[in-house]
Sequence to fold (762 residues):
Amino acid sequence: MQKRSATFLFLGFLLVLSFGAVLLDLPPSPAPSTAPPQEFSAERAFVYISDFAQKPHPIGTPEHDRVRDNLLAQIASLFLTPEVQRATGVTDLYQAAGRIENILVRLSGVSGSSDAVLLAAHYDSVPAGPGAADDGCGVATLLETLRNLSAASPLRNDIILLFSDGEEDGMLGASAFAKEHPWAKDVRVVINFEAQGTSGPPQLVEMSSGNGRLIQVLTRAVSLPHTSSLTYEIYKRMPNDSDVTVLKTIAAALNIAFIGNSEAHQTPLDNPEHLNKRSLQQSGEYALSLARAFGNADLTQLSAADAAHFSIPDGLPSGSLPTRVWLLDIFAIAAFLALALYANRVFGVHASTISLSMLASVEMLIALGIASFVFVETVSWLHLDLLPPGDVVRSTPYGLSLIALLLALESAFYKLLRRQTFTWFGLLLGRLAFLLALTLVSSVLLPGGSYLFAWPLLAAVPASFFVAIHSDKPSRFEAGALCLLSLPALLFFMPLLRGIHQALGLTPLGAPLLAVVLGILILALTALEEVLLTVSGNWLPIGAFGIACLLFAFAASSTRYSAAHPKPSMLKYALDTDAGKALWASSADRPDDWTAQYVGTSPARGKLNSFYPTGQPIEYFLHDAPVLSLPPPRVELLKSSVIGDSRMLRLRLTSPRNARALSVEVPESDILEGWVDDRKLAGTSESRWNKNGKWGLEYANVPAQGIALNLHAKGVGRVKLVVVDRSLGLPEIPGAAFAPRPADSMAQHSGDETLVRRTLVF
Fold:
């Protein structure tokens, strides 16, 4: 084969397969509203979302009550009787509590057993977004699945649908169900539906431990599952939470979510117009298939050892690995040793050469990580000081520019090593030895992710033999074989690279991680890289660098906040009634014309200490604000008693402003025990945010009569309380006229709020 033909073949194959691995990952087309009643229809489900996600509906708002009533009416229209669980949910992980209204439906099975499958989604939203995807998509998925199931013959097991409340305020509804509802003891498996974006394929992002049987049922029930044990290993090490965090304490659990277009998550962009109906369709197919599969399964046999598993794009096999991790390791070791023995006899490659090449591989990965970090810092600086601000973190052109730059740097580094230090086989063996080391280490530390390195390594060994024969002028057969043997690496790593960009973006953590993963992919494709660089000369590093520059220029000129891509931020008015001072606080990364109305052009930056738990890592631009006469939260001492060397306090906390949320912190006394609305609270050590040892409580949806709080304090001295209530929206400032948010700006998460603080001593 001619060198030019080989160059075009390899480059074309790599580009087509790389983009194909992403494009073929698209969810299926939405089924029409005329689909049979037993089939899931995204068009039917979307009708509900259009009404559901008109406005934000966090708990404690009139819009929440409208959504609740509409949900109850939708269930009643199916001739089913929903149950409403009204309770105070308490979540130990966040030291959070609040009044919730869970909605439940139960379909009886034919077995006569009380064992049940729980399908769950939450129907509240954050204050800043209407929640079409998070979690209107989950709610609509459950409603349409309920319609499908009720139109068919009963299943073997009971099916419970939980439309939980208060998830955004700390998984309150899930906690109330798990701790107090009588049906909780019947649940054997939980399938939860979530969203952290508005598009993309739904993925199995979280599972309970002992998931081997769950994965087996999943891969048999769902035709195109998007799941991997690597995702499971990573997710359980991250501080991400959903209702499954609570529900998996009572049963085996699966958490399914999509993360595409994450810029819309918890913002006004999370609306019906931005929700991808394909994602809704696939969520529904997951729900219906899994409900039927687990609904007819033996729910007493769900526990099995964690399964190593993965999925690959449409049309290719997916599911559990056919061998255990240790057996795969043995094959990988044997294959590498066979290749090393061949290289020693034919090319004279010794262990010292392999060791040096391994060291060079590590240096290459470190260099790529540093280069990506410098790239991100440079881009951030440009858009902070010289260029207009834009969403650099999620910019696709900047992401592609970074990848092209990394390819240019790595290929230039490879050519330098080949020219001055290593024979190609010595360099190859060192890289594969490093890949083998990753396989063995991950088998111990990250067993669910070892397949990511083992299968590409097993494919790289025969590829190396092909290259050893004719690296400068491969035949068509050899070229085709090299392309086929690169499939495992590309099909595993390309979706992973895409997932890293979607989940973390071009952040100081995400970009280096992306660079390292890309570097490992290149290590696995060293045989193909050797041939490609041999037949193309210097065109690959030069061409990749040129493409990186062009993409960078395009990204620099097009990455802008606009009406289509607004800039997210939160604005707070924080009043300290004790000190008689108030602050404006903006979470924006730099003041713009709108935020400058409140915080000026050169504000100080810091945390809202004593307004939020000090463990929360959010920093704001701070500036003095007018002091308004807003009534602070009230605390009434109902009873005080001394028990030995400690005190018992019974308090009632209310908000004269009818604020949606209220928090209390005890900054100086040790609290031994606490209760709210007669529910016992966890200790400080169990909370994620209060790492400074201060006892605190966040309470959402404060009733008009207030909340009852009991505290058991160490010592008989005085107890100081810092109490803050938080209401949605900003107060009116007499004599001031602030411009509304412009089209290129939007609220996010908790949105714009008014906070009023006071300190009391009892």
